[in-house]
Design a protein that fits this description.
The chain contains eleven helices and ten strands. With 278 residues, it is of the alpha/beta class. Strands 6-2-1-7-8-10-9 form a seven-stranded mixed beta sheet, with helices on both faces. Strand 9 and strand 10 form a beta hairpin. The radius of gyration is 20 Å and the shape is globular. The N and C termini lie far apart (59 Å). The model has no long low-confidence stretch (mean pLDDT 91).
Length: 278
């Protein structure tokens, strides 16, 4: 099967899945390989035949939707952003929480994959910041729609390739080696709670100081769905809190309620007229 056949097929079905082609251009080969394997498993001849199969096998759309999910996740991915979170964003949020006599700092990692992002935040907090804010505990809610990924997150054991960007001192302190895998120590797992949620249908009900939604909504979903989900995210972000999306992503044009931080692509502050930064 040729690449152009898969591209044509994807461009036809994406409106039904409320996805946009722009986000899939560079990762289409991975998606196409999955779909080709499915076509062969069904005994079909090509993408056109699979398209006809979708016309009467409605449950197949759920499988197709799953095949279109792209997961690229590593610990400390985008080193500069994590450095800024550690040096500026998390301390600022912690100070605000202490001023309000809050007992916890609440973080939501949306589309958490196999746990690299929320676990990185847990490591940073406990190693770098917890001692400075002893009255605060960090609560990290991590959600994803992929059950297999969440199962991997629960085991918290990874290949070195997932950890190569994590600074060596953090790697050596937070992990132990078992059967060739790097496994996260329990004390860094306890702050993270995983939940099976498809962000298109369900989100946590509570509010958060920091929400991370990187390389998901604003890469793959169509504009109308982006705007709908952004409103729901905004309702879950505390005034003055932060939203972090992918470094190559941007919020929909005209989106209100957020102040972009120009030095850090993908980082936005929820507008809070009652709070003035120091």
């Amino acid at each position: 099967m040729k690449d152009w056949e898969c591209v044509s097929f994807l461009q036809r079905i994406m409106p039904t899945l409320r996805l946009q082609w722009h986000g899939f251009r560079k990762v289409r080969k991975q998606v196409c390989k999955r779909i080709e394997r499915r076509i062969k498993a069904l005994g079909l001849s090509d993408f056109d035949a699979y398209g006809e199969y979708l016309d009467y096998a409605q449950n197949e759309w759920d499988l197709l939707d799953g095949m279109c999910r792209i997961t690229i996740s590593r610990f400390y991915r985008d080193r500069g952003i994590y450095g800024h979170l550690k040096e500026t964003v998390l301390p600022e949020l912690a100070e605000k929480a202490c001023e309000k006599e809050a007992k916890s700092l609440r973080i939501w990692s949306a589309g958490c994959a196999s746990g690299e992002e929320p676990y990185t935040l847990s490591i940073l907090w406990q190693m770098e910041l917890a001692a400075k804010f002893p009255v605060l505990k960090v609560v990290i809610i991590a959600t994803d729609s992929h059950l297999a990924m969440l199962a991997r997150a629960g085991k918290a054991c990874y290949r070195y390739s997932s950890l190569k960007e994590l600074p060596k001192p953090l790697l050596e302190r937070a992990f132990y080696v078992e059967n060739g895998s790097y496994c996260l120590k329990k004390e860094y797992q306890k702050t993270v709670t995983f939940s099976h949620q498809d962000i298109r249908d369900e989100m946590p009900e509570e509010t958060f100081d920091l929400i991370l939604c990187r390389n998901l909504i604003f890469s793959y979903f169509d504009d109308a769905l982006q705007r709908t989900l952004l409103k729901q995210i905004e309702a879950r972000l505390k005034p003055g809190g932060y939203l972090l999306i992918g470094t190559h992503e941007s919020l929909p044009e005209g989106a209100a309620g957020f102040e972009p931080l120009s030095r850090w692509p993908g980082l936005y502050r929820s507008i809070d007229k009652t709070y003035k930064r120091k």
